[in-house]
Amino acid sequence: MEEMGMTDLQFKSWLKQVIRGLEGAKEESTKEGTDKKLDALLKDLKEDLQG
After folding, report:
1. According to DSSP H, which parts of the chain are helical?
2. Using an 8 Å Cβ cutoff, are 26 and 34 in contact?
3. Are the C-beta atoms of 20 and 41 separated by less than 8 Å?
4. What is the largest CA-CA distance in the chain?
5. Is the distance from CB of 32 to CB of 40 less than 8 angstroms?
6. Which pTM does this prediction carry?
7. Alpha carbon of 27 to those of 21, 34, 38, 41: distances in Å?
8. Quick count: other Cβ atoms within 10 Å of Cβ 43?
9. For a surface tag, which of 24, 32, 35, 44 has the fewest beta carbons within 10 Å of its beta carbon?
10. What distance lies between CA 1 and its chain's CA centroid?
11. Which residues contact 26 (CB under 8 A, 6 or more apart)?
């Protein structure tokens, strides 16, 4: 069975989500807030990778 990949539009949308997550973490005023947002982003990316 052949696995279907993302379209260019889907990939761009996914990249925008990653960028928003990183920008949100960057805007946090405390290290704890930044770490929390980065942990959530990493969790989401790992889940996406597992499919």
Report:
1. 8-26, 31-50
2. yes
3. no
4. 48
5. no
6. 0.76
7. 10, 8, 12, 14
8. 10
9. 32
10. 28
11. 34
